[in-house]
Task: structure prediction
Amino acid sequence: MAAPKKGRGPAGGGQGKPGRSLALILIVMVALAGGMFLSGHTTPRLGIDLAGGTSITLQAKSQPGKPDAINETNMNTAVNIIERRVNGLGVSEAEVQTQGSSNIIVNIPKGTNSEQAREQVGTTAQLYFRPVLTVEASGSDATPSATATPSGSASPAPSASASASAKATDGATATDGDKADSSATPSASATTQGRAVTGALTKDTTPSATASAAATAAATDDAAATDTASPSASVDPATAKLQAEFAALDCSDPKQRAEAGQDAKATDTIVACGSNTPGSYEKYVLGPAEVSGSDVDNAQGAIDQSTGEWIVTMEFNSAGAKKFNKITSTLAQQTSPMNQFAIVLDGEVVSAPSVASALSANAQISGNFTQQSAQDLGNILSYGALPLTFKEASVTTVTAALGGEQLQAGLIAGAIGLALVVIYLVAYYRGLASIALLSLLASGILTYTIMALLGPAIGFALNLPAVCGAIVAIGITADSFIVYFERVRDEIREGRTLRPAIERAWPRARRTILVSDFVSFLAAAVLFVVTVGKVQGFAFTLGLTTVLDVVVVFFFTKPVMTLMGRTKFFSSGHPWSGLDPKRLGAKPPLRRSRRVNSSTDPKEA
Result:
């Protein structure tokens, strides 16, 4: 009779090569641990509830003439923009979500760049390029007749792409010539300046920068030629109101400075404030906007190589480049201050450079920028303006003490749960409990190292719901071990020895484990997609630990079980091994039953 062939299937008792699987998972564990220590991130990042931070409630403000502006679409757009701004600063686990119909909640964990993020979350970032009609110093110490003439210039800058660059460098005081004229004939200067303002406001009836500048120039010439001309001879009510606002505006008053230029449309002629140096303010009359922030394709803070100062560089899209070329072509033909364009951010004049020639593709904003302020402005402009104006309804500081107490309580609960699982495994499975504990240890190492590395990689931060997800994962992992152990015991009860039982039990246990983990992962994925905020931390951790459970069972638990089956302690069915055939109620060996069934019936002999 031919000897049976050795096979690798369960019937053949094939054992595979468990050493390779163990070596592979051990190499992965060492690599992850090494990467964790080399990167310097030896602990997972903590969320706002554990590390502390700031919770900001932003309330949308109604806009004049736009009663339906506060709607679901604009609120969701604002949430996306704020989230991109904060993430662009590298802040981990910032939560941005709507509350009700007009509020947005922003939770910023304490840490790197959190203060910058707080300053940027509610900034509307409405950017406009407006032609300057007139400008004068403003404040209690300012001389009413003095005209502040910015000394900066804008000129084409050579580059590889032959694109022009507008360099906006503001001056805080008048030129020497202006000062001399002002001190010699103060009344004449005041009269001329007043007529220039009146002429600009009276003649400007079109949103075109060209018409505004031309009308202002004509009005100035008429005022200089005829001293007896009345500045308010044909002023319409809207223009008279704007004149009054300009005359009454005191930019040194923080309240007036904050309200100037707010809630204005792009097509409006407005009054606004600006500051070139700390403590020095100018007030402007600005024409309708010709270019807006939506025409900016990219912006970033950079160092001006010629001056060593921080600036903000902007690149326009194709439509913006055409608009910018048109306005600078017009302004280059005017005289100061009407050859200037004001860069207005949220109603405040950030910079007001003069234009010497037509420009197109690129522009630079310079002034009193620090590295942080330049990078902040570039970040805001890159991600666009908010569709709504917000005010801070409340700002709450969350301390880490409360989160620490909750974390401690959660860890204690997790330790108690783990201890109960260990007691159950030892009492019921005895020696097999050692395999389960080693598998739990491997799963814990993988989970911890991956969480620590995901912090700097994708901004993952550990919060209390995520800790709960990790605790729940202990039960999921233990359940996989129990499924496999019970399958092995079933095979021993059928009369098989340990080594064949381990191999025959694996295919059946494997299917059950995969189905169970698939259901858990699917639930975690759905929960992650349909929820927001901290609940996503629970879903993410649950999904991660479920995937790791499959990895540990396949590459660690099964190979270790195969190796343990080769030892005398387990293969002999020691009473403390958890695999004692007598305690399990094993049937007689299958080979004996086959011999009895194949024997000849004595009665037939």
User: Anything to note?
Assistant: Residues 1-14, 143-232, 592-605 have pLDDT under 50 and may be disordered. The first helix runs from residue 18 to 39. The chain is about 50% helix and 15% strand.
